[in-house]
User: Fold this.
Amino acid sequence: MNCVQKPENRLQGTVLIVDDTPDDLRLTQSVVAAVCPQLCIRSVTSGEELICYLKGENCFSNRSDFPYPILVLLDLRMPGMHGFEVLRWLRNHPPHNALAVVALTVSGESQIVQQAYELGARSFLTKPIKGNEFKETMTKLPEWNTPKPAPSRRAREQ
Assistant:
């Protein structure tokens, strides 16, 4: 079950998973590896770590070991800097505002989904993620490789 059928068109790059729950993190890693085995998978456990990773700071300075991701799978409910704060930070800090982010949460509540989209998430998956849903999401990644505009003033203030 690969992301793209033709080997010459196989998506390459790194998926960065941001989740503070070890079991959810392991499950998400296994789904990504099963659906897109050619992708490099890296993970962090907080919004603060994500920012350090993206900036290449601290232990993430070696880009050979910690390549810049093509996709971030972001848990919205984390202690400290939660997912909505991360989305605000990303959208207000070029070049990170061009990064495709898929929001993850245990709840599919419409208000949460809407706020994630307003803050720049490109898609939304309910945890635990399922292989077929992730595969469908990955087909959209090439069109997400263009920057999204900064969030509206209302979204920034939320």
